[in-house]
Amino acid sequence: MLVERDHIGIFGKMNSGKSTLMNLLTQQETSIVDSTPGTTADTKITLQEIHGMGPVKLFDTAGLDEGTGLGEKKRKKVLSTLKECDLVLLVIDPSSTEFQTEAMVLEEARRLDKQLLVIYNLFQAVDEKEIERVEEQMPYINFHRRLRLTATNPAFRQPLLEFILENFESKNQQLELLPFVEKDQFYILNIPMDEETPPGRYLRPQAMAEEYITRHWAFPVSYRMDLGKARKGDPSERKRWNEFLASLQRRPKAIVTDSQAMDIMKDWAPDDMLLTTFSIMMINYVSRGKLNGFHEGINALEHIKAGDRILIAEACNHSRIKEDIGIVQIPRYIQQHFPGVEVEHNFGREFQENKELEKYSLVIHCGGCMISGQKMQARIRDLEAIGVPFTNYGIFLSYIQGRKSLDRVMVPWK
Ligand SMILES: Nc1nc2c(ncn2[C@@H]2O[C@H](COP(=O)(O)OP(=O)(O)OP(=O)(O)O)[C@@H](O)[C@H]2O)c(=O)[nH]1
Ligand code: SF4
Ligand SMILES: [Mg+2]
């Protein structure tokens, strides 16, 4: 099961004490602290259980005010971290002379609709005039709750935790993975293993589906479809499938299939059973129920033309061999159905910048099982902001088998 964690990010200028604050929260030397400005280069991530709040992911970021070329790279990283945060902790050293960086964080947080709390890190005894000066220069800061502390002093850990608990409202509600699952019913998981299937374990969406069904007192039953034989029309595979279905005393309620097998499943799945795919299940879960957006995005294919570009996005870097879905199967379908349309790829946890994304007519995203809901939602927000439609592997592979197939795999999610 994916653990849902609130994401808390620490932001501010260099040497404001961000890493010191991170270490105050974790009670250990999680981040390197040093008086050299720019000590934290990359975002430092740590997992932590906060009493009263549950599991969280903490992000310590680089200072946003570094002036060099490297500073620009760091800034991009920090702003991409900010997109994924549920709570922004803005650390301010009130003895600073100007507050442009802090004002920029306030503005970004407002634009992205993030919760933000202000931490005044007092390096020396508090000087009220300094705080007044900060608040005069940044009037919007008054919309946010503010706490004064000294990050080097462990006695401030408890007040800091209480401050976060009192003022932060978690919006990460747990979503049902397979909302249509009913107690005492059978559910078929169609898992055609191939050369890419790792030995010794299921893929994450498969393992999650099996766990979810079992946890809900229902019965997962797996079928390893021989896709090669099925596609060749070898009658022995169809017979095996039919015998498998007949051997279950109670009619299964639904089939969750590997999306690649939709070319077979669209004909083989009996009409009285629901049908959907692991990829659709996963993207619904990771996007926290934003499946409709992915469903609507497929319409972009209705008016796509030669020369347009499609981006295939996978959220991890698994090894890709032979009939890989992202680099072979989907591009092949695109070539067949939409000649002249160009295909590009984005693999891994980092997504392209908006100005790069703008050139695409459609983004086809994998199930996203290796990234957090926050990261997925940040991607969706970016794509919506620039008006680039997006869809998903399972939706695309069903659509390519005809609208009827797509309508069918969407039924369980209505
Ligand atoms: N006296 C005092 N020193 C502090 C306090 N907070 C941080 N420092 C010192 O300030 C320096 C910078 O602290 P860091 O936590 O590394 O600051 P940072 O914001 O992470 O800085 P960068 O990683 O460079 O962006 C270190 O020498 C800390 O020991 C504080 O509350 N009081
Ligand atoms: S992140 Fe995407 S490509 Fe990687 S295993 Fe999960 S669904 Fe597949
Ligand atoms: Mg630091």
TrEMBL record:
GO biological process, alphabetically ordered: tRNA methylation; tRNA wobble uridine modification
Q: Which residues form the Hydrogen maturase F dimerization domain?
A: 241-283
Extract the InterPro entries matched here.
Answer: GTP-bd (IPR006073), HydF_dimer (IPR041606), HydF_tetramer (IPR040644), P-loop_NTPase (IPR027417), Small_GTP-bd (IPR005225)
- Gene3D superfamilies attached to this UniProt entry: 3.40.50.11410, 3.40.50.11420, P-loop containing nucleotide triphosphate hydrolases
G domain: residues covered: 7-121
Q: Which residues form the Hydrogen maturase F tetramerization domain?
A: 294-411
List, in alphabetical order, the Gene Ontology terms for molecular function in this entry: GTP binding
Under PANTHER family, the record lists: TRANSLATION INITIATION FACTOR IF-2 (PTHR42714:SF6), TRNA MODIFICATION GTPASE GTPBP3 (PTHR42714)
Pfam families named in the record: HydF_dimer, HydF_tetramer, MMR_HSR1
Protein name in UniProt: GTP-binding protein
- Transmembrane regions listed in the UniProt entry: none
Q: Which GO terms describe its cellular component?
A: cytoplasm
